[in-house]
Design a protein that fits this description.
InterPro entries: BCAA_transport, Leu-bd, Peripla_BP_I. Keywords: Amino-acid transport, Signal, Transport. By secondary structure, the protein is an alpha/beta fold. It folds into two domains: 206 residues, Rossmann fold (3-Layer(aba) Sandwich), CATH 3.40.50.2300; 155 residues, Rossmann fold (3-Layer(aba) Sandwich), CATH 3.40.50. It contains eleven helices and 16 strands. Helix 4 links the parallel strand 4 and strand 5.
Length: 390
């Protein structure tokens, strides 16, 4: 009997870690068309964990272990890797992914394993809308936040808009939300154009837009919603839409994509982040550290990744640990925390992070090889009536 108890005790000890640790899985598209976004997101996540723990990478004495998994931007792989992270790696919390299509495949896995998935930076409204469950929190902005902020920046009486977007969840959700947001501004949408995500020749799409908009009187804008490489903005601008009285407009983007903005000084839109816009201690630290370590300023998704890392640490501290998912949910619903963009808050009803956005005007500046998004005005949380869609 004593030998049986001894064997059982030994087996139990071998199965139990010698010390507790906090296991966070970053499940994101390290390879593929959105690789640049993914790299920024991971760098930001690690900087957020570092900042929130004052460099210790520990929370209340428990070390943080970050497990990386590459979805390759494929929904089935993302779904399998998230299950692997929760089931085999015993990750208490996961962060990611980059693609909205991959995110939608991953949402049921979080519900099945009853563990938190912090969505960053996937944007589609349906993630915190019709496909949402209580284990999903999003630090990234959603399509409606993009849409409402851009509608405020671009809309107005007598304005007519055409849209061009990629034909998947990000593009279609973005256009739907933008159309809804424009309704209160007096602007109208005359034409919608959707193209495959890997489109490189925009001639036919642009011609359809020009034909639909050519005879319309008044102020006319072509609003482009695009993610990844192959942006249509420069190519369509080369087709001279101004001959039809059409101005190109778009939201913010990563620094590499802003090179096309240099051709369009004075263009307006709304952005999620540009490193020179927010004025707060967290962003000051991020800019200083990123310049020091990488020789470049932090980018669009670096700020997002950092916001996710900061949220995770704040939630674990409030919940008294990472092992009790219900305690984490209770801690995170309504939680406010400081980010490079200032204060964010998880809305209790859908766990979407409420956050400021920025109305910008493009400016050409000496020493910068891209169009600089200069702040027109900050759109605070209270300036945007964000729908609850679940």
């Amino acid at each position: 009997m004593k030998r049986t108890l001894s064997v059982a005790l030994t087996a139990s000890l071998l199965a139990t870690p010698l010390f507790a640790e906090i296991r966070i899985a970053h499940v994101y598209g390290k390879t593929g068309a959105l690789e640049a976004y993914a790299k920024q997101s991971h760098v930001g996540l690690m900087l957020g964990l570092e900042y929130a723990t004052e460099g210790t990478m520990e929370i209340d004495g428990e070390p943080i272990v970050v497990i990386e998994k590459d979805t390759q931007l494929k929904p089935d792989i993302g779904k399998a890797l998230l299950a692997e992270a929760y089931g085999d790696d015993d990750a208490q919390i996961a962060v990611g992914p980059v693609s909205s299509g991959v995110a939608l495949a991953m949402l049921p896995v979080a519900e099945e394993y009853e563990r938190i998935l912090v969505v960053e930076p996937a944007v589609a409204d349906s993630i915190t809308g019709e496909n949402w469950n209580r284990y999903i929190f999003r630090t990234g902005r959603n399509s409606s936040q993009d849409a409402i902020s851009n509608a405020i920046a671009l809309g107005g009486e007598g304005v007519t808009v055409a849209t061009l977007a990629q034909d998947y969840a990000f593009g279609r959700d973005g256009v739907a939300a933008f159309k809804e947001a424009l309704e209160g501004t007096g602007a109208t949408v005359a034409h919608e154009e959707y193209v495959p995500t890997d489109t490189t020749d925009f001639t036919a799409a642009a011609e359809r837009i020009f034909q639909a908009m050519g005879d319309i009187e008044g102020e006319k804008k072509l609003f482009i919603i695009w993610a990844g490489g192959g942006s249509p903005m420069g190519k369509i601008n080369a087709m001279d839409p101004s001959r039809f009285g059409i101005e190109i407009a778009t939201g913010g983007n990563i620094l590499a994509a802003l090179t096309a903005y240099k051709e369009l000084p004075g263009m307006e839109g709304a952005t999620y982040y540009y490193y020179e816009i927010p004025k707060n201690p967290v962003n000051d630290w991020l800019v200083e550290q990123h310049l020091d370590r990488f020789g470049t300023p932090p980018d669009f998704f670096t700020a997002g990744g950092m916001s996710a890392g900061l949220a995770v640490v704040e939630a674990i501290r409030k919940a008294g640990g990472a092992d009790d998912t219900d305690a984490l949910i209770e801690a995170m619903e309504g939680m406010e925390w400081e980010t490079p963009k200032g204060t964010m808050q998880f809305r209790a009803e859908d766990h979407q992070a409420l956050q400021p956005m920025y109305h910008f005007r493009t400016e050409v500046q000496d020493g910068k090889d891209y169009g600089v998004p200069v702040l027109v005005r900050e759109l605070a949380i209270g300036d945007m009536d964000l729908p609850i869609r679940n």
